[in-house]
Structures are given as structure tokens and as C-alpha cells.
């Protein structure tokens, strides 16, 4: 059963990053990826939005997972992206652990309520230890997509 809208997330929205070693480099990589997929109109502005949001409070969830996002007019359409980092990224996460996986969101100005719901659903699903471990340990995009599809979002 597929719950996730494939225009919001699909297998092509998964990337492995072997370059980033800092949070800023991670944000730049996420912005480059979202821009390359056509979800944001300006890579630098989206990156600045991620940094601005992070400065309001950490998006580092727990157990090496972060949910960076920003709501901005630069976001053309809603999207979700999974970026796995080869290098642990110091993120100032709630539990102090470095981040190895970012589940990033593009949240357009319009329709933000539905996609803030998605953010809430992701956070709720990440409470499930089995789900978290799967996201952290699985590198196969097809298997990762099946895990993400467990999030019941039909917005």
C-alpha cells in the first residue's frame, strides 16, 4: 500500500552525500539537490531559508536524524528529500548526536498547513525505533522508499 504522494516523495528524492562535513555544507548539498529536482527556484535562497530556520531552533531530531525545512516563496512545490551523509554532521541536535540522515522538506507559502502536517507525521514516525533504524541503516533507494511510504500522508 502506498500512502505518500509520489510528487512529494519518490525514489529519485534520495541521495547519498560523501562530501559534507559541516552543517552548512549539508544545507548547501540539500539545496543543490532540491534545486536540481526543480522544487526550489533559487538554490542559495533555499539554503539561506534552511539556515534561518535552523537558527530559530534545531531540526536535529534524535538518533542521528534531522528534519531541515523552510517555508518560503522560493519553494515551488512541496517536496521531501532523504539525504544520507557518509560523514557525521555536527547539528546541535536535541540529543547531541551528529546527524547521518536529513529528511528535508520544501514547504511553499501556499498549502503550508498540509505540509506542516507532513512534518508532524514524519516526526511522529521517527519516534518508532524500528523505523529510525531502518532509515539509518538502509541504503537501497527502493527499500528506503518503501519505508517512507509507511507514513500515511495523503494530502
Write the SSE topology:
Layout: E1 14-17, H1 23-36, H2 43-56, E2 60-62, E3 65-66, E4 69-71, E5 79-89, E6 99-107, H3 112-125, H4 129-137, H5 141-148
Parallel strand pairs: 1-5, 3-6, 4-6
Antiparallel strand pairs: 2-3, 5-6
Average predicted confidence as pLDDT: 91
Seen as an oligomer or otherwise, the chain set is single chain
Helix content: 25-40%
Class from helix and strand fractions: alpha/beta
Number of strands: 6
Q: Can you count the helices?
A: 5
Describe the global form.
Answer: globular
Share in β-strands: 15-25%
Q: Summarize the helix and strand pattern as letters.
A: EHHEEEEEHHH
Spans of at least 5 consecutive residues with low confidence: none
Biggest β-sheet, characterized?
6 strands, mixed
Radius of gyration: 14 Å
End-to-end Cα distance, whole Å, is 16 Å
What does this structure look like?
The protein is α/β, with parallel strands linked by helices and 155 residues long. Helix content is 38%, strand content 21%. It is built from five helices and six strands. It has helices at residues 23-36, 43-56, 112-125, 129-137, 141-148; strands at residues 14-17, 60-62, 65-66, 69-71, 79-89, 99-107. The longest helix has 14 residues, at 23-36.
